Amino acid sequence: MKIIFLGAGNVATHLAWALKENGHEIVQIYSRTQLSAETLAQQLDTDFCISLDKLKQADLYIYALSDNAIESVVNQVNIYSGIHIHTAGSVNMNIFERKFEKFGVFYPLQTFSKDKEIDFSQVPIFVEGCNKAVSQTLYNLAKTLTNRPFEASSAQRIQLHIAAVFACNFSNYLYRIAADLLLKNNLPFDILQPLIMETASKIQTLSPDEAQTGPAHRQDMKTLQKQLEIIENEDYKKIYSEMSEQISSRNRK
Length: 253
Hints:
Elements: E1 2-6, H1 10-21, E2 25-30, H2 34-44, E3 47-49, E4 60-63, H3 67-76, E5 83-86, E6 103-108, E7 125-129, H4 132-143, E8 149-151, H5 154-183, H6 193-202, H7 208-211, H8 221-230, H9 234-252
Parallel strand pairs: 1-2, 1-4, 2-3, 4-5, 5-6, 7-8
Antiparallel strand pairs: 6-7
């Protein structure tokens, strides 16, 4: 397929490379910022623009933008051919319906950083189309990248995104707290990595309920109270207390 990316951030970078490596043609990169557009275009050996009036014709237009930016850009695009899709977890597909005949969603369930390579063959990709033909086209496109393509409605996808925020974004914030606590005591964060990897590994074979351990899980109130007294940061203390109560309450049920 001939594909244009609107956006040049983390998702656009990884997805564009994956599509190119699997035989698709990236014909243009759009970004409001020339440096971003030009940098990604040079990497992909393709064209770029910083004006939506300069968009070329393509089979597929991928809006790999922040959630807040999608609607504004959609309203400014004046090319009505091709299929128009976004990559967001929490944006409804109907954001396109007043403007374009063919539209949908192509949502890769993964966290992206520009300098960290991604094996797309293992990334679940969730597609949704405005009709069966578009859904099939997007599903077939997903199959060129991943072994795990799925169809999901907008309602399903937003629940999926919420779950992903808990599993990924919130977990990473807890890593940041852990790193801060260790740094203040002259200990390196990497000493936690074996523990983190083992925890992640366990849920390959156990449910999260079965994998849960720790003082709150075993109702060790003496340890919980002692650790709460040691934690100096009030925000961290609040998080520790509330999460411990949630774990303990769930275990009592």
